[in-house]
Design a protein that fits this description.
This protein has 23 helices and 25 strands. With about 650 residues, the chain is of the alpha+beta class. The protein folds into five domains: about 130 residues, Rossmann fold; about 100 residues, Beta-Lactamase, CATH 3.30.450.20; about 170 residues, GAF domain (Beta-Lactamase, 2-Layer Sandwich), CATH 3.30.450; about 140 residues, no CATH class; about 70 residues, Arc Repressor Mutant, subunit A. The strands form five sheets. Strands 21-22-20-19-23-24-18-25 form an eight-stranded antiparallel β-sheet. Strands 2-1-3-6-7 form a five-stranded parallel β-sheet, sandwiched between helices. A hairpin with a 2-residue loop joins strand 10 and strand 11. Helix 3 runs parallel beside helix 4, helix 10 runs antiparallel to helix 11 and helix 10 runs parallel beside helix 15. The longest helix is centred in the middle third of the chain and has 34 residues. It is elongated. About 5% of the residues have low confidence.
Length: about 650
């Protein structure tokens, strides 16, 4: 660059011009900080090249470029900006920029001097192809010049972007879009070019493309070049690889959909659990669950399956929804579906999940084909259980993707446990309200039963005194043992695998009561099978159990469930029991007969004096004073009376 060259820097918040001026004393450098000052300087004296920042006070470099071109159409103009940005480049090209240069691409002031020299020496006022070429190193994208007929006029790629092009420059220049792409895609590209030329604005579109790196997604930003080539209008097509961004967006959308689905699942489950309180029978419970889940729209088919010792394929108890007869088809297959998900769920008491029918190994190929023909995507079989008893399964089928994620599975597992609890509660309620029941008597010789071993080794009797539910499905067993050494029994029971806690709570001249927390016992298993245990006695190495079930219960199923856990057991008695109807007056009379006159007097006086209120209306001394007895005497009568009442309630 000769000494008579003058460069006008329009600079804001950078020191590039000052560094450039110090490094090159053989030229004249003017520095202005705004677009208005630049235009004023151009009027004042001759300038060979304008170098402007993109960011300017109250304006930007594109606006300044357009103003300069109105008066000085051939004045070299170099635009400086941050990291390459295709929309700035496209606008700069359309406005007639000579060169476009990110500040990060300036290695030193000598590099900038070269770019300014080229701009002054090679600036074109007509076609503008050379200035386009100069921009290819400014951003990491592929740029094309494509005319209105769809012909490639030029392919502009930098040293690191050629692998992103559909073909090499040699193979593209001079060819039409329809020579490179399928007709439908080429038509879409050409329509986008026409839309850009008609609007005069920057237009965008996204599209997939097979390149050397494989299939990638691109975002095209196009703008009219502003000059014709061989008489045709031309657009600048800048293609940016957005594959990674698109994948991030898809991942976020997927997570959002999963969250929405999970919220819907939780809402449906809450509604189902709320309604389970009012269901009276097992059939009501299972039908309600199936209908509500199908009504939610998450699953198109739901059914419950029976837990049986021997199954012959899918055997629905209740069902709702349907997908072109898919469930009926499964039923027809019968035993041909070996180890189906419902059977596996019952045997393992674990969820059986099919996320994608196309990739599962849980179903035979012929079943998968039936599912795929109906558009089925996923399914799940949920064990319905309470304690150690598996009542069956709840199976759900969906044509939607993403409805069986990890969190959804956890929620559905809770639903299965809740259904099992509700079924067990319904059975117990039926026993309490039934006028008649079936009494079952079992004899058990299974050596795993801890009190059976105690009675055999210590030659004593053990009677079930009472049961109280504990946490985590365990039971507090209160067992009375007669004719045995308490410490010896406590040691034997404490050492048993199924006993977690054990303590002596009451000792008299004949025997004692032992409190045990047990995770497994014959009594617990019989309760979980749906029976109400009336008595349990271990004597001479044998346990005798008496239990009741509602008269319409499938007794065979109760027996099979119990014997599957305790094979060394026999059903030795089965009889129907009619419960006499008891009026309220009869109940009061039966309670009163258990109390002495003094106990009744003490209870009535304490009750009406507010002794049992909170806070108390009267204390023990005041109640005793009303009866003209000592406090100790009052406490004695109250304790004896309360014991009789509680015995009538819990033992009666």
């Amino acid at each position: 660059m000769s000494s008579n060259r003058t460069v006008l820097f329009v600079e804001h918040e950078t020191d590039i011009a000052r560094e450039y001026s110090h490094a090159h004393g053989d030229l004249t450098v003017h520095i202005k900080s705004s677009a208005s000052e630049c235009l004023a300087q151009l009027e004042y004296g001759a300038i060979d090249c304008v170098v402007s920042n993109y960011n300017l006070p109250n304006s930007d470099g594109i606006d300044l470029l357009e103003s300069v071109r109105e008066t000085y159409p051939n004045l070299p103009f170099v635009l400086l900006t941050g990291d390459g940005c295709e929309h700035v480049a496209s606008e700069a090209i359309a406005a007639g920029v000579s060169d476009y240069l990110p500040t990060t691409a300036i290695d030193d002031v000598h590099d900038l001097r070269t770019r300014i020299t080229n701009a002054i020496g090679k600036h074109l006022g007509g076609r503008g192809e050379s200035r386009i070429k100069a921009l290819t190193t400014a951003f990491p994208d592929v740029a094309f010049l494509i005319d209105e007929k769809g012909y490639y006029r030029e392919l502009l790629v930098g040293p690191n972007t050629e692998k992103l092009a559909a073909s090499s420059p040699t193979n593209l220049v001079g060819r039409r879009l329809h020579d490179v792409f399928p007709e439908e895609q080429a038509d879409r590209f050409l329509a986008h070019i026409h839309r850009t030329l008609e609007s005069g604005q920057i237009e965008t579109m996204e599209y997939p493309l097979e390149v050397e790196k494989g299939q990638r997604w691109f975002e095209a930003r196009t703008t009219a070049l502003g000059t014709k080539i061989d008489g045709r209008d031309v657009v600048v097509w800048v293609a940016r690889d957005i594959t990674d961004r698109r994948e991030r967006e898809r991942k976020l959308a997927r997570q959002h959909d999963e969250l929405e689905t999970l919220n819907q699942i939780h809402w449906v489950i809450q509604e189902v659990i709320h309604e389970l309180v009012h269901a009276a029978t097992r059939d009501d419970i299972e039908q309600l669950v199936c209908e509500r889940l199908v009504e939610s729209g998450l699953y198109e088919l739901a059914w419950t399956d029976e837990s049986e010792v021997s199954r012959e394929g899918v055997t629905p108890r209740t069902r709702a929804g349907g997908i072109d007869g898919y469930l009926d088809t499964l039923i027809e297959f019968g035993k041909d579906i070996a180890d189906d998900p419902t059977d596996m769920a019952m045997r393992t008491d674990e969820l059986q999940v099919i996320q994608d029918v196309r990739e599962t190994d849980k179903l035979p190929q012929f079943v998968c084909e039936e599912a795929l023909d109906r558009g089925i995507v996923s399914g799940i079989s949920i064990p319905i259980s309470y304690g150690n008893t598996v009542y069956g399964t709840l199976s759900l089928v969906s044509t939607r993707d993403g409805v069986l994620g990890k969190q959804a599975q956890a929620a559905l597992k809770i639903l299965g446990d809740t259904i099992g609890f509700a079924i067990n509660a319904a059975k117990n309620k039926k026993i309490l309200l039934s006028d008649s029941s079936v009494e079952l008597e079992f004899r058990v010789t299974d050596p795993r039963e801890v009190f059976l071993k105690v009675s055999r080794q210590l030659d004593c009797q053990c009677h079930l005194h009472g049961l109280v539910p504990a946490s985590d499905g365990k039971l507090l067993h209160y067992v009375r043992v007669d004719d045995a050494e308490p410490k010896r029994v406590e040691e034997m029971v404490s050492d048993a695998r199924q006993v977690e806690e054990c303590r002596l709570i009451d000792i008299d001249d004949v025997g004692f009561v032992l409190e045990t927390v047990m995770s497994e016992s014959t009594v617990k298993r019989l309760i979980e099978a749906g029976a109400a245990v009336q008595s349990a006695t271990a004597d001479s190495g044998e346990v005798s159990l008496v239990a009741e079930v509602p008269h319409d219960t499938d007794v065979r199923q109760v027996v099979d469930t119990f014997q599957s856990a305790y094979p060394n057991s026999q059903l030795i008695g089965k009889r129907t029991i009619d419960r006499p109807t008891q009026t309220e007056q009869d109940f009061r009379q039966s309670i009163t007969e258990r109390l002495t006159e003094r106990q009744v007097t003490a209870l009535r006086t304490a009750y009406f004096a507010g002794y049992y209120d909170w806070p108390r209306g009267s204390n023990a001394e005041e109640v005793a004073g009303s009866l003209d007895i000592a406090s100790a005497t009052l406490h004695y009568h109250l304790r004896r009376a309360q014991n009789e009442l509680l015995s009538a309630f819990f033992d009666g």
